[in-house]
Amino acid sequence: MSALLACNGLTMRFGGLTALDGVDIAVGKGETVGLVGPNGSGKTTFFNVLTGLYKPSSGAVRFAEADLFARSPQEIGRAGVARTFQRSRLMLDQTVFDNIAVGALGRLDLGLMTALVRRSRFRRQLSALVEQATALTRRFNPQIAANLFRPAGSFTMIDRRRIEICRALIGAPRLLLLDEPSAGMTHEETRQLMDDLLAFREEMPDLAIVLVEHEMDVIRRISDRCIVLNFGKKIFEGPFDALIADREVQTAYLGGGE
Amino acid sequence: MSMLQLAPTLDTANGRSVGLQRVVVALTVAVLFAGGGFLLHTEEQGQVIALLAAFVALFALGEKLPAGRRVAALCVAHPGTVNLTAAVMVLAIAAALREEHYTLLMMATVALFATAAAGLTLQMAFAGVPNFAGAAFFAVGSYVAAVLGTSGIPHLLVLVIAGLAAAVLGLLLLLPVLRTRGHYAALVTIAFGLLLRSFLEVNDVLGGPQGMKVPSFSLFGLSFSRVTEIGPYDVSFYLPYALAGCFLFALAFAVVRRLEFSFAGVALDAVRSDEVSASVFGLSIARWKATAFLMGNALIGVAGALYGMMNAFVNPNSANFGDSLIMLSILVLGGLGNLWGAVVASVVILVIPEKLQAIQEFRLVIFALLVIAILRFRPSGLMPRVTRDFSSFAKEG
Amino acid sequence: MDPGLLAQYVFNGLMLGTIYAIVAVGFSLFFGVLDVIKFSHGDVVTVGAFSAFGAAGLVAAAVTLPGPLALALGLLAALGAGAASGMLIGRVLVLPLKNAPAVNVLLATLMAGTVLREVIRLGVPNGGNPKPFPALLPEGVLAAGSFSVGIDSVIILVAGIAVVVATHLVITRTRLGLAIRAVAQDGEVAQLAGISFSRTVLGTFALGSMLAGLAGLMLGLYYREINFNMGVLLGIIGFACAVVGGLGSLIGPILGGFLFAGIQTGVTVVLPFTSAYKDVVAFAVIILLIGLFPTGLIAEKSSERV
Lengths: 258, 397, 306
Fold this sequence. Notes:
The complex is a heterotrimer of chains A (about 260), B (about 400) and C (about 300). With about 400 residues, chain B is mostly helical.
């Protein structure tokens, strides 16, 4: 099968530390993959390598038939990979709209002539983007859509996370990487966010998602397939039910966790 | 002066109340400018102190009283009215004080330093690139004016070349500035400022420590230094400089505002606040930092050229580190990213020490303590940058 | 070139390098514990010089003291005033601003330096003019062939190098040094280990600023003249040396100090007719080195958590 994303033997070394050790991960179009593992097992490192923030030491990364191994974050972003971050990385004193617009800048006209002289062209783009951002945020929470021009910092944690997801989605990515979306949220908030994501799933059947999570409940509800990393190695791949039963995974969590 | 007017703002309220709002805004701005003009002009110590007290009181009211905050919010909501009133007031003040050399010189100085602050705003407030060599790039502009001013090249073109020269010289610093951040980038610019100053001092081609004479600005064959009357009125030859300085600031203001209210502005904010997420979303950090750094230096260079022509001379001391700090202080005191704040801060830093004889001797200490107090207790400045709100632009469709 | 003259240049270069290194080490110490640049550091050098001048001068006016006693008095004054002004600025300005953007702290401490400078200019009688610094060290000249050097200069150089070595020992061998290194590594973890964060930071400010005060005394003794402006360029050079060497490291700034002095001296020796360009060349090299090694020659540990 020709996967949307195919990583082979992906290895990332920091000095003497091997954070990713020959990892093979494939994700198909429209698939949701849950990525789990104890702290320090290499999940976020995998995201950072995949989005170009770290340069991998060896291996291969193919995405939509293009070679994305060790490319710059810019190239990878433009190829259609978007992500959220474990710790919120919003511009809190800027409006929700401005934050979401950042995710769309890759396809907008950023030329100085448009900014300074051809203002009508800019306004057309702006109006279109406001419409898109309104539609997108409304799916998650109509309150965000209604307050699109309020500072992002004035929203609750769960809404900020929703805004971050909208920022990642507005650029119409083909692969979305979610880094612990439930971090810092209550059970109830996590449940709401999952409902949002599942509803969203239905509407964008082609979007592939890789989700890093500690909440097993979230993984169970949302992922088609699970991958477990431990000490930078893939130790398990398969459906959630098999994961629960796997002895090696249990040892990793009970015995080997930090 | 309609070029001053940024995109007009539509309000959802009905026409009559919008009209009333605009009147309130126009009156507020007119009062502030009238007070500013009076402050520029008066030499009477009692009046200066009374005016300063009045400004402080007005400022406090605008912040503390609900009504004051409402008026401030209206001013933010009607930038077109603010700009138009400001332009009219500048013309009125210039007309009223047309014969006053010293007042007009100060007006021009404030306008040109505010223009340089606009350049620094692009660099520091938008892209987050520190520039501790503002005075050096300003001096580059003056030196270009000195060298090319007598060459027969039209002076408008000389201003453009001065801007380009400052940008090109900034290009030398681009690699180290792009590869570094924070303190390291700051040091690069500090070192450049010192380097340029030592170079100008030891190099005789550009006049050495004595510096060079700069010819007066001349527009379409009319030399500003020979303007002594307009129609039936006697005027100071600083009048055209004051008007040209304000015009230049208006241009810089329009550039900065339009850039801020564009997707390029969003890109710059994204790069400044978080390079990691900006690059993940496909933005080239180098491109935006370079754009802001070069454009900013160009603006500073143009302002410096006109300033040199007005002062008729330039020497290496113009490029000194202390003056770069003054420019930075204007930016921080006014509020990083707010150009009206930069105008207010220019007046505070450049004019008030001239006016208050009692503090002449202590001006540096007072100025330093003021900046420290601002950084310590009100780090967003006297007039903090207003959160960009695209909603008014989008509604028009 | 005449070997005696060359030796003279080398001696001057060593002296400059030692002074730069002492100032740069202070910048690096502050950065190590607090990740800030305290730009008033150069003016603390001036404070040290003027305090020594005042102490030695005032006492000399009242009673005649034997040389060593006047020197000891000057030394104490330089160290005390340096430490006091450094800690004061650290306490009221740098600590409260520790989470502010880097540029704000730079600007605030530059302004604090301006205040120190202006206080000296306005507070010292006739403070705007250069002051002759008393000769507190034994007179006499050591000569070898065409090379001659004052005994006082030799003492200053030896003392300066001893101070650099002593600072190294303080950092590596003492409890304060251990605390400084722990806080530099990770302030929170150090606090968990029972190390007081603010006391360590203030201790660092005291140590670094005593070094600056000492540099002021050395400059006064060496050049026999002090001036309210003397710290400005020295501060910038010290900062440049620390950055080029690697902020937060201890060896880096020393390396940077001798490198800067070496470039200045080298330009003077190799291209005597362009010696006026020595600062131009030195700063150009600084810019170039930062471009090539953006985090200093001895790289500071830096990792951003994503």
